[in-house]
Design goal:
The complex is a heterodimer of chains A (409) and B (199). Chain A is of the alpha/beta class and 409 residues long. Chain A is built from nine helices and 26 strands. In chain A, helix 1 (10-22) packs parallel to helix 7. Chain B has 199 residues and is α+β, with helices and mostly antiparallel strands. Chain B folds into two domains: 1-57 and 128-199, Alpha-Beta Plaits (2-Layer Sandwich), CATH 3.30.70; 60-125, Alpha-Beta Plaits (2-Layer Sandwich). Chain B is built from eight helices and eight strands, in the order E-H-H-E-E-H-E-E-H-E-E-H-H-E-H-H. Chain B has helices at residues 16-24, 31-34, 67-71, 98-102, 130-134, 140-144, 155-170, 181-197, and strands at 2-6, 46-49, 55-58, 77-79, 86-88, 109-111, 122-124, 150-154. In chain B, strand 2 and strand 3 form a beta hairpin. Classes of the chains: A alpha/beta (409), B alpha+beta (199). Chain A binds chain B through residues 40, 42-43, 46, 51-52, 56, 59-60, 291-292, 295-296, 299, 318-322, 327, 329, 331, 374-379, 381-382, 392, 396, 401, 403-406, 408-409, and chain B through 8, 46, 48-52, 56, 58, 67, 70-71, 73-75, 92, 94-106, 108-110.
């Protein structure tokens, strides 16, 4: 059996390991854009913040490909798939034949449209190379502008604040992480960032960048000049899907897969940031471009490719982060668009430096936000993911003393 | 291979296991010296209050596959060869709490640890007392438990005994699986208290 994997991020790497577990001699080829050894992408924000060195990024040995007997084709991007001919097309016209294909191409930063993007010290934040360049640009930098208040923008702003820069964050919602947390938690996070020197401007976008070689200022759509030595664009990510033949493989925002991670084309699978499947908490299809999802999906895709039929229960959004003195944990659907049919239970708030919010639908938990004392977050995540009917009164579930033992009756 | 088996129905909530665990993971390995240490050693087994305020000893199950290991961003969580014990490498841990999100039992804590790097909080959890076991001792929580809520035995034997107890309890003239009389009385009192207070 000849397996080809597009993408050497954690979804592709996990899939390759799962295939190797079941098929000792199968042919495995990985086509990867990045030439660096398999590394922890979420850790690049720790490198920017200075809390971890760049050298700690690799999470597999430099001999990973040789040890697993994988043929690596690195520094190359797939440009097309010949579904009927069972071949992947590369930019240099090379064709790679496959029996089973995994699309784990990941996602690219959502591009920004503005003038002056070619100036130095304007960065996206996606790869270890970006992190390396950002750290190099810190030398002498005093002021930074961060575009976007989602996960990427938030982590960029936090990292730069930790480095002692004066950071201005431009966001469209009233508070950061509006897709991940509710307003109460969002305001607590915002206050914590502001307390540590963050400047926030709401409802503002950037029209152009000015400078002489290097960026010196960002110009907003209102015409305001924001002086800066460094810019990080964090407007989220988009699945890498341009090379996928849409007529033959169903593509929505991401590549649509079934519970076995198989696309609409038999023998072709997708996993990780590029894949779109049912979200357990939302009950509809969603792209959850997150590290733990990529690990789990990659592994299950690999098992299926090697012939063991394993179902993936669906994806689930989740995030945990430390924001100076706040620990934030969020999972599932925490801000249902219409509150009818949902029950929301909350406790704590900004004054207590402690907050919990649970979102229930009938007897199922579908979302949770915790600020500080987050140790039991995994129990809540497990209740959501496994769709366990909640028999404990929600007031007990949201209380500070909640623990696994209370679920046993 | 012996493992720690938890019998929550026997736990009286005395929390002696927490004290013993913290001592076993201190520098000095004695209770009186351990309380003077900085950073203070902390327990890796956690007795929480159950639904009826009864004790519930909660510790790492060393799952296989381990969700915390799969979720670890830094590659710090690994399985010790042979013993099946899931371990956290304190020098690789970046204290990101991704394992807190992954653990379905809520047994991982985050703090500076006497056995970890100085001045940094890290993820800390049960290590099956591997240092004690290597010296021929049994896990500290089991050694201290007076109620029989924590035992150290072959998993297969424990499973067989449990199955036998359950099947026996199905017979019409059989008693329920035995709980010591004192423990049963304590539980009845706690449950009645809650019933009377109406919560």
């Amino acid at each position: 059996m000849k397996h080809v994997i597009i993408g050497n991020g954690i979804a592709g790497v996990s899939a390759a390991e799962a295939i190797r577990l079941l098929e000792a001699t199968a042919d495995i080829t990985i086509i990867g854009d990045e030439t660096f050894p398999p590394y922890s992408r979420p850790m690049i924000s720790h490198v920017l913040a200075g809390s971890q060195p760049h050298g700690k990024l690799p999470i597999r040995s430099e001999h990973f490909y040789a040890d697993q007997k994988i043929t690596p084709l690195l520094g190359r991007r797939a440009v097309g798939i010949d579904v009927a001919g069972r071949q992947v097309l590369l930019a240099d016209d090379t064709r790679i034949g496959f029996d089973r294909l995994l699309i784990a191409a990941g996602a690219d930063p959502r591009p920004l449209k503005a003038e002056g993007l070619d100036l130095k010290n304007i960065f996206y934040m996606r790869t270890q190379e970006h992190a390396k360049q950002q750290v190099a640009a810190l030398d002498g930098a005093r002021r930074a502008v961060v575009l976007g208040g989602g996960l990427v923008g938030f982590k960029a702003a936090y990292g730069l604040l930790r480095r002692g820069l004066a950071v201005t964050m431009l966001i469209t919602s009233g508070y950061p992480l509006s897709m991940q947390v509710d307003e109460t938690a969002g305001r607590m996070i915002l206050d914590e960032l502001v307390r540590h020197g963050l400047t926030v401007q709401v409802g503002v976008t950037v029209r152009a960048f000015e400078g002489n070689g290097s960026v010196r200022a960002a110009v907003t759509d209102a015409g305001t000049r924001l002086p800066c030595d460094m810019v990080i664009i964090g407007k989220g990510v988009l699945p890498c899907r341009t090379f996928i033949p849409k007529g033959q493989i169903e593509v929505d925002l991401g590549v649509v897969v079934d519970e076995h991670l198989q696309t609409t084309a038999p023998g072709i699978y997708a996993a990780g940031d590029v894949a779109e499947m049912v979200d357990i908490a939302r009950g509809c299809r969603w792209v959850n471009a997150l590290w733990p999802e990529a690990v789990g999906q990659g592994r299950v895709a690999g098992l299926n490719m090697a012939g063991r039929e394993v179902a993936y229960p669906g994806s689930l959004s989740r995030n945990v982060m430390r924001v100076f003195d706040l620990d934030v944990l969020t999972v599932g659907n925490v801000t249902p668009r219409e509150e009818a049919g949902y029950r929301i239970v909350q406790t704590g708030g900004a004054a207590q430096k402690y907050y919990r919010r649970l979102v229930l639908r009938d007897d199922l938990l579908v979302g949770a936000v915790m600020i500080n004392r987050i140790e039991q977050g995994g129990v809540l995540r497990s209740l959501i993911e496994n769709r366990i009917p909640i028999r404990l009164p929600p007031e007990r579930l949201v209380a500070p003393g909640f623990n696994f033992g209370q679920l046993l009756y | 291979m012996k493992q720690v088996v938890v019998h929550p129905e026997r736990c009286v909530g005395c929390m002696q296991c927490m004290l013993a665990c913290a001592t076993a993971h201190s520098r000095s390995l004695t209770l009186f010296a351990a309380v003077q240490e900085t950073p203070q050693p902390k327990p890796r087994i956690h007795v929480g209050a159950g639904r009826f305020n009864e004790g519930f000893p909660n510790r790492c199950r060393h799952c296989d596959p381990a969700p915390c290991q799969m979720a670890c961003l830094a590659g710090a969580i690994y399985r010790r060869d042979g013993a099946g014990t899931v371990m956290i490498n304190p020098d690789r841990c970046i204290n990101c709490a991704s394992c807190a999100m992954a653990c379905p039992y809520g047994v991982i804590r985050f703090h500076e640890d006497p056995l970890g790097p100085a001045g940094h909080a890290i993820a800390v959890k049960c290590d099956n007392c591997s240092a004690r076991v290597a010296k021929g001792q049994i896990p500290a929580c089991v050694e201290i438990c007076k109620a029989g809520a924590l035992t150290y035995e072959e998993m297969d034997a424990a499973m067989r005994r449990k199955t036998r107890d359950v099947s026996r309890s199905m017979s019409t003239d059989a008693d329920q699986p035995a709980i010591p009389a004192g423990v049963a009385l304590l539980k009845t009192i706690k449950q009645s208290e809650i019933a009377l207070s109406g919560s």
